[in-house]
Amino acid sequence: MALTRHTSMLNEKGPVIHPSKERRLAKARGVICYFGVRKFGYMGTEVGKVLHLGPTGVSIAIRRGERSLKDNPLLFNEIMTSKKDN
């Protein structure tokens, strides 16, 4: 299963794809990295390539995403529910 299948909703020119320190975008990249690596089993380098992040950036983003999901369990449930519906 190709990573592009899970990231087809991401626009290559969209703000999530390019590194930014804007909080909401950093959180979104964190959640994407967390799910890509921890839940879907992709390599961090694969996820990093799609999001234009290096290995350290992916690692930091995963921790940020995990923290965001712990702080907002409804978000985790919503994402998991929408994954099952597709």
Describe what you observe in this structure.
With 86 residues, the chain is an all-alpha fold. The chain has one domain (19-85). It is built from five helices and no strands. It has helices at 3-7, 23-39, 44-51, 55-71, 73-85. The longest helix has 17 residues, at 23-39. The mean pLDDT is 81.
Estimate percent helicity: 55-70%
Strand content: under 5%
Distance between the termini: 15 Å
Can you summarize the main beta sheet?
none
Q: Please give the count of helices.
A: 5
> What structural class results from the helix and strand content?
mainly alpha
Mean pLDDT: 81
Order of helices and strands: HHHHH
Quantity of strands, as a count: 0
Rg, alpha carbons:
12 Å
- Low-pLDDT parts are none
**Count of distinct structural domains:** 1
Shape annotation: globular
